[in-house]
Amino acid sequence: MAGECSLKVFRRVVESRTLKLALKTLLALMLLVARANAFSLLGPYEDWMQRTNFFRLDDIGGPMNLGEEYRWNVPVLTYAFDASFLDYFGSNGVAAVDRAVQILNELPPVSNMVLTNFPLEARSYNYLAQVQGLYDLKSYALFVLLEHMGLAEPTRSVFVLRRWHSEFVSHAWEIYWRDWAIPDFIAERNFDPDTLGPSHYINGTLYTGRAMNYGTDVDAVEVPVDPLANTYTAVADRIADRGAFYTSLTRDDVGGLGYLLRTNNLNLEILLPDVHGVGSNAVSSVNQAVRPGVDKITFVRPAYDSLLGRFFVLFTNQFTDKYVTNNTIVEQQVERVVQKPDFLFSSGDSIELGSPVARSSTRNWWNSASGNSSGPGLIRPPVTITFGRWTFVQTDDHFPEDEAYVENLRWASFNGSTNPPVTYPIGSTASSDLTVHLSVFVAGSACGPFTWQLPVASGEGANLQTSTNLINWVTLTTMTNQGTPVFWYHVGLGSQRFFRVVQ
Length: 503
Known about the structure:
Elements: H1 2-16, H2 19-32, E1 41-43, E2 62-64, E3 70-71, E4 76-81, H3 83-105, E5 123-125, H4 127-131, E6 134-136, H5 137-147, H6 154-157, E7 160-161, H7 181-185, E8 186-187, E9 201-202, E10 205-213, E11 218-224, E12 244-246, H8 251-261, E13 267-269, E14 275-277, E15 289-291, E16 298-300, E17 304-305, E18 310-311, E19 315-325, E20 328-338, E21 343-348, E22 357-359, E23 366-367, E24 377-378, E25 383-388, E26 391-396, E27 405-408, E28 410-413, E29 422-423, E30 434-442, E31 445-454, E32 461-467, E33 473-480, E34 486-492, E35 498-502
Parallel strand pairs: 3-24, 4-16, 4-21, 6-28, 21-25, 26-34, 30-34
Antiparallel strand pairs: 1-2, 5-12, 7-8, 9-10, 10-11, 13-15, 14-20, 17-18, 19-20, 22-25, 23-24, 26-27, 28-29, 30-31, 32-33, 32-35
Helix pairs in contact: 1-2, 3-5
């Protein structure tokens, strides 16, 4: 009866051909359906994920189908901090990343995991940090760790455009898509952790989709059915708001890790190169085999020489590796000996502007499939996570001469208390010279960068100025030395113009 009623409602929606009625109907259905969850899986880009198909290649990889996932098959992973991180973030920054790691380490084994013990929403806001435009270091570290444990951004993966069809122009919304739209032109890469079927829910929020044409770009865009619903709730969705922070993982994040690491998820895998047999398995260990998930992964931080880039003492971990042969689980004792960390946290200037953090891509991940097929596969180290430090300035001949767009990337550590945020940089970087890089763009051609390095003390300022005759100078903006380089981009009309930085 319930299925028959749903079918009748859907028919009425299609026949109405009005978006307003469609959304109202879908919202009513949402209230009748039990709240659902879902996760998405990350891996190297598949062959069809190309710009010629209008696929957005703006991440370290793409969303995988079930059975194509990538994961770790060792129970212990190591992490450390290099000299640039320690110099910029200091011990407070180390403690912030440690707190992110602690959230993962406190997860129970997958075999003991109960999803309803985890919240649908773990994001909170510190309004002082929001006003000051601060990003939370711990929360970004937690997102990147989840990403390199094999989870993709679920909201972006509910609908994934495989290729554009002209009919999407007149049939843009999901309720109007033809039967062939999914999966031929639009893939569903968000999965329910219980049924393992495609899901349009993320932490209880129901999404619908719309095929959008931006002129030179197209995409399948996820839209919440309830416009007042919480969105981008999963930690794996990547925190984007200044002043926001996570207190834990959400139900969907845990559901994704549970799928990857559970012991009845059998994948063809190899051992990492630094894993070898010990004892009776010293000379006869099995490398490539079908393996179950490891049930739980723990992160440890051995003593690390940040200048030499290695552990002071080789880190050794012995564990029981399990694999399948003749439909039987077989155990072998193995040992992993590592000199360098699996995850290295760093800080740097030269990362993609507009992105707070840069990280290793998925190109090093091992693919078990032959040819150009996708996974399943193995995540392999090393993973480098670089927290950016920059100030972005854009000026334009179209703007009034005394105007500039300025964006500061400012890191901090904060929570829901009334304590003021701990801001970075900390240490010698805070008193370094002010560095300004200028690039000029005219008619699609770039000139530069030109670099100034001025002895401006921390907290002091310098003026970015321009002139058309070297006599009359206009101050576009004043920059304060916050220990970060300034990347100045100017878009010109082709007329003569001069630039300088005045202390």
